[in-house]
Design a protein that fits this description.
This protein is an alpha/beta fold. It contains nine helices and eleven strands. An eleven-stranded mixed β-sheet has the order 3-2-1-4-11-10-5-6-9-7-8, with helices on both faces. The longest helix is centred in the middle third of the chain and has 19 residues. It is globular and about 60 Å long.
């Protein structure tokens, strides 16, 4: 298994990315990592002589605040594109970057191509839940201009269901639609349309779900538009910071209880990345602020995703 990694992507690159890679390799003696970086990085950063690591050099790195289309035009030989070309040329099984998500998606479409030209890439994010597989939220911000198009979302839902089934061994995962009420007539015209489409399909669709039920549901996949999904994801990430204040409570220092789970594991770092679907190749996008722990977790996800 070979994973191509954008070493220059993210707010804490390259140091935290490299640290996460080395932590990952300690438990994966058979995996190979291809680090994609710019030619102007300090030489001592790669003075590793690690048998599982090779380095590929590129001219540019894409900044987190850069416009995706402009950066693609002005920086064609960039580290994001480099990881994707390695996947396209079958020199890597999966590409991973914590960089500019818009640039990753745009380059993925250009380099790898769409599986279906009538659809669009989507992002699946996994939310850790207590004593059960994580909850998949689809989409969290990859589908174009965030307009909720029922037919477009329904067309790419099958890949999300397939990935969840194979990653977590859940047959016929339960699907719910995030909405402002549980009644079938709630929401916009597009909400009602996709509700009808999923109800008439062979999916295990069980209706609408409201935001206050997300962390307590038995469902496996939550369908929502990219704008709402991204807001929900960022809000849930902020909870972990708040929960750190409970760290010194006596009851959660040693026991494997729910509060301990919230403090230690209810965190984006335990999942690390979001698979990008709809393109002809395996791509995982990490959080821009990823720590070495998050990178390590994302690489674990890359291995599982690449094996599907």
């Amino acid at each position: 298994m070979k994973i191509a990694i954008d070493l220059n992507g993210g707010d804490r690159a390259p140091e935290e990315i490299l640290k996460g890679c080395l932590e990952f390799l300690k438990n994966h003696p058979r995996e190979k990592l291809i680090l994609c970086t710019t030619k102007n990085e300090p030489d001592n950063l790669f003075d590793l002589n690690h048998p599982q690591i090779t380095v590929e050099y590129f001219t540019h790195a894409v900044g987190m605040k850069e416009t995706p289309a402009k950066s693609k035009k002005e920086k064609p030989d960039n580290t994001i594109e480099g990881t994707l070309r390695l996947v396209k040329n079958r020199k890597a099984d999966c590409a991973f970057s914590c960089g500019n998500s818009g640039a990753i998606i745009l380059n993925s479409v250009d380099v790898l191509g769409l599986k279906d030209p009538n659809t669009h890439p989507s992002l699946i994010s996994f939310i850790p839940l207590y004593n059960r597989p994580p909850l998949a939220v689809f989409d969290v911000g990859a589908l174009g201009n965030y307009v909720f198009n029922a037919e477009l979302y329904f067309a790419v839902l099958h890949e999300t269901v397939d990935i969840y089934t194979k990653l977590y061994g859940v047959k016929e995962p339960e699907i719910k639609l995030l909405n402002i009420g549980t009644e079938s007539w709630k929401g916009t015209a597009e909400h009602k349309n996709i509700y009808r489409m999923m109800s008439d399909s062979l999916y295990n669709f069980t209706g609408n779900i409201e935001g206050d039920e997300l962390l307590f549901t038995d469902a496996s996949v939550i369908v929502t538009d990219g704008l709402t999904g991204n807001i929900v994801l960022k809000l849930l990430e902020s909870f972990n910071v708040l929960l750190q204040n409970f760290r010194n409570f006596k009851d959660c220092k040693f026991d494997n209880n729910y509060l301990n789970f919230l403090i230690e594991d209810f965190n984006y770092e335990t999942i690390g990345g979001a698979p990008l679907t709809g393109v002809n190749g395996k791509v995982v996008i990490g959080h821009g602020k990823s720590s070495s722990k998050a990178v390590r977790s994302a690489l674990e996800l890359c291995v599982k995703y690449a094996e599907i």
